[in-house]
Amino acid sequence: MLLRSLLLAWFMLLPAAGAYAAPPGQGAVKLVPAAEAAAPSSGPYFVEARLRAAPGVVGQGYVIARYGDDRNWLGFGLDVAPAGKLAVNIVRQIDGQPKFLKQVRIEPDAGDPFYTIRLDVDGAALTAYLNGTRLIGVDEPNSLPPRIGLLSQGGEFEFRGLRAGDITQAPTSIGLVHRHKQLTLQAGEAPQRYAVRASSRDGLRTLPFSAVSSDSSVLEASVDGDALVLAPRGAGKAAVTLASREDPNVALTLAVRVGPAFAASSRRSTVAAGMASPAAGEQDVPVDTRLQLHFDQAPTLGDTGSIRIVRSKDKVTVDVIRPGLELDEIGATRDGVKRVVRYKAITVDGATATIRPHDGKLAYDTEYYVVVDGNVFPGALLGGAPFDGVGKPGAWAFRTRGQAPRDTILRVALAGKADFRTVQGALNHAMQDFPREQSVTIRLADGKHEGLLYLRGKDNVTLRGESRHGSVITGENSDGINPGSGAGQQPLAPGATGGRSVFLVEDADLLRLDTLTLANTTWRSKTIGAQAEALNFSSEGRLIANQADFISEQDTIQLKGYAWFYRSLVAGNVDFIWGYNRAALFEESEIRSVGDSANPSSGGYLVQARTVAEGDPGFVFLNSRLTHGPGPAGNDVPSGATFLARPGVVTAWDNVRYINCSVGPHINVQGWHGKPRGGKGWEEGGSTDLAGKPLDLSQRVAGQVLAPPEAARYDSRSKVFAQFANGKGWSPQP
After folding, report:
1. Which among 149, 245, 361, 583 has the fewest CB atoms less than 10 Å away?
2. Is the separation of the CB atoms in 467 and 515 below 8 Å?
3. Over the stretch 34-68, which tens digit does the pLDDT of each residue have?
4. Cβ atoms 328, 389 nearer than 8 A
5. Cα 485 from Cα 501, distance rounded (Å)
6. Which CATH architecture has domain 174-259?
7. Record: fold of 476-482+503-725
């Protein structure tokens, strides 16, 4: 009650509009009001508010969660940079100097929206939320009093809905079920319905909400029960704001683009041989087929229009594919959980355009035809004629294969005879059509297998390539495209939380990746949000990687549970081996630091361990080589610029061991960066240079140098995995 009274008194001091304008002058700072309100005096608490910057403002708007004086405080909020770039900061002011604890760039919402930001303060653990969804976390011990304030730097920010309370009051988000906050429609389409749900730690629920369109001449928005109804009226852009009628802090703004009406083609003849794949009239087509058009020369990909797959027998459109980033629901899990991600659905490579249908849209033994909007490839030439699309039903038709394969060995190839065209198609079949414990092998023909992947609820799956460097699973994904580490979503969960990895694995045991390459092609220098795993093994089960390559720049592999990498390569730069694991052994493998495309002088960090228990082995490198080489931009790692590890979070353990490894000159002589939790967990023994000469470890800091008897605790896979299954142990084989 005291807290509520103090907050009410504070609000009475604010201007009627709820806005505060910073004093004139570059970098002027003033606390408003003078931190008279207080958070709970003991125990974990949260602080929350809605805020937005005035038009044209470049600066920061902060909510203060801990306050000593104007030179010492802890705050969080929005950072508006030139050109409309936006970030969420957690910052601590120390003796008048800012210490930026964490910054995450975010996509600005359409229109002029408020953003709901929240900070949970649980001792040293700080967790920031944006519009009810967890965004970032950081640990920052401090003794500042839990007092609340508002701060505007560089211009005017408007604050509303300021409140604080016990951390057990869960943050709530609202959104469209399995949808991102960006939508694309076409004029003339029928009204589209989207289920709306609220989500919190307490689960999913419906709630009364309002919906307002910024331009009804482009898009009309209305509410029908638990659904948002959008009716496209004309080409243009509109922002649609959803807000809970129970709590105005629970809100979201959608960006909707309405393109021109579907441009029907006058093309009446069948698409000729060599122009398309599958070919017109082709039979026995895999149900996960990619569509391709082979133009006379490299086509230009437009930013409007659509490609539609129609079931021939009843003229029902089963899939609509548009240029730009499309949303996909990946997976065929038995529990209905999907990986919801954005992906680039249409790409151009030379004269070939590849169209990637959404996952699981085609059925067996069914005829389909494809219609192509003339706006998708403006000005292109196909078969010597100007391309105006494919419009006639049946002009580009094909029939899928009669039934699903029954063999437990599945073949994936980009062309020719195969069970599937995509790795995900084979994974879906394994998840859906075989018992959990049944062993299934997916054989990958050589080729560039593009696409984001998801495996859940299926054990004993092997992905085996035709050759290590020829069978390449690849994709471009990052925190800027699909934020967060990622997780599957329940059938009615709002948003898109599939995460930034190429391959996400949940609830699976004994996954084997053999004789292949798994690569995330994201460049740190070309993206906002450069974290970009090739693999996120988010399972408490076991992973085997045998003679395989894992490549990215930042966060290449994230691991839970137990993992064994044998004679494999892991390449990256920043924290490129990390995770909340139990035991991961890298045996006779190469750990390659590559040049940072964003910061050529940086050598990065090999490991950031967040091992679950103090007694777990964590990340163990045995008889492996620590090397360096060029990154995607061509630059190598400077000598002495790389560290063996840096600390993780205070709630986990920094367990990293290097046993009998050969170490390149890129590793700094101090070895470790910072200090591990509790001052222990970083260990090294038997290190040599790359030529096999014993390495001088006298300048190592923070870590412990092990004598041979101590290092022997980790000198075999049976020892590293001895704790598996409550001491039953695990001794994996190639």
Report:
1. 245
2. yes
3. 344 456 667 899 999 999 999 888 999 999 999 88
4. no
5. 7
6. Sandwich (2.60)
7. Pectate Lyase C-like (2.160.20)
